[in-house]
Amino acid sequence: MKKFSQPASLVTLLLTCIEGMGLVLIAWVALKHLKEPATAQAQLMFNFIVVIGAVIILYQMYKDYSRTGPNPRVMLYGAVALVSVLAVVGNFGDDMVREPGYLALFIGAVAFCQIVKLSCQMASSQPDAQRFYDVRQGIPVTLQARVATGRDRRFIAAHEAGHALLYAAWSPYPDALRVVVKAGSDGSNSLGYVNDGQQRHLLTDKTFAEWDMLMSLAGSAGERCYTGEMSLGAINDNQRWLSVATPYLSCYPQSGIFYTDPASQLEIEVNQRHLSALRAAQNALLEAFFEHNREVHTRLTEALLAGSTLTGADLHPFFAGVQLPDDIPRPQNVNTQA
């Protein structure tokens, strides 16, 4: 699953630099004073912390691997904390275990490992400016687990139903299509999604590109059709639309020239006018589409609210009831196996 982060501000970049310099300084001081203790008990504590600390770092780094991948920031924080703790034990461990012996050994080892764990957990919590968004058709959320409200679910269901109805233009309908509305955030960066399970051709044809752009805008159009409003859940859809619209206009400019690599403010403004005109035309097309298919879209939205997930043939009766205007693009043979 592809992700993107919000652009970092100058303040965020400055804080990141200060953070990095602080970690480097701490690591340098710790490594300079790193040594093994002399007594057997202190050496036992030292070795215990090395093993358990490494296990904690690896666990914290990979515990969310399935949804976020390995987190190198956790490894960095954990490694600096571990080296710092070992430097303290190496220099003061002998004195710590003289009295009262093994009890201090155990308590000290557990406490120092807890420091490593807390450092890893602190590193794994991303600041707001670095939270991620899903680039599939869906709604961006933070990594914090929260339950969706009734209002949230209506927006999510209408959004995903809007995306899904565009598949009525496919011939044949996709059998592997899956539409999901979640009960809340689950750490996967998505509150809902539409996935057709089809591998795309390497070369995108004009008709499919036009359909794909409408697909990206259909989520917001579906929200507006069902609720009369739009949420801020289309950040990823807008990025997707732009990623298709730019090469599309480069190959098929609506009027005049679209600059593939604009080199001046004038050329940038020309491109912006092309993009704005294309988006306005497609939004108008979608508004007419959902006006003609309001009843079908409402039924699909309420079916998703009732059951959360619809797949394959369950969606085909909804598609059969869709009225397709003549100017809606109809992709053929989307599956690369066709």
Automatic annotation (TrEMBL):
It comes from the Bacteria. Keywords: Membrane, Transmembrane, Transmembrane helix. InterPro entries: Peptidase_M41-like (IPR037219). The keyword Glycosyltransferase does not apply. The keyword Iron does not apply. The chain crosses the membrane at residues 12-31, 43-62, 74-90. This is Peptidase M41 domain-containing protein. It comes from Erwinia aeris. The lineage of its organism: Bacteria, Pseudomonadati, Pseudomonadota, Gammaproteobacteria, Enterobacterales.
